[in-house]
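step: validate -> pass
step: tokenize input -> pass
step: predict -> running
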Amino acid sequence: MTVTGSDIVELDRIAVYEAVRMVGLAQEPDWERDTPCAGWTLRRLVAHMTAQHLGFAAAARGAGHQAVSWREPEDMREPARVHRAAATAVLAAFAEPGVAQREFSLPELGGSFPGGRAIGFHFIDYVVHAWDVAAALGVRLELPEHVLHAALAVARRVPADPARRGPGSAFAPALDVPPGSGPLDEALRLLGRVPQEWPVRR
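step: predict -> pass
step: emit ->
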């Protein structure tokens, strides 16, 4: 599947909106739930998601090298509101003309990347993190098939080198994919998630 710069911006927008919807479903008792991100509560996961949105927004505008751009908010008493504001900021940055042709400085990934590729990183992160939130809440993620197939195409290109997976990395080591898996399940397993451990309850 070939994804152009304009395509990846639109795919990312859809994934981010679904992540915002998922986070918006959380009620006060839900923030201390466990998530598929080992050791992270839902509140901690959403703080990370918020920081990543702000960091990518800064990177789109030439400030990704500044450590302050990637800091998690200190005040997470209203996680959904804080996350929604950060999502709005990154979508505005990615909507700027020529963004896919810019260079993004992404310190956590070890350097600078063409804008289209960098937005692809953000896209797969938010498909997976939207699912992480849905899994913690026991609800179903709702993304169109073409978005899931695009996410799978990106997931297949994520390096499987053990040195870049595991504790402290964005993704756990890849898992075997059972025959007949759908695109979301395959993408999640390639990135170290186990969908069957997080059934839909609501």
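step: describe -> Residues 148 and 184 are 6 Å apart (CA to CA).
step: cleanup -> pass
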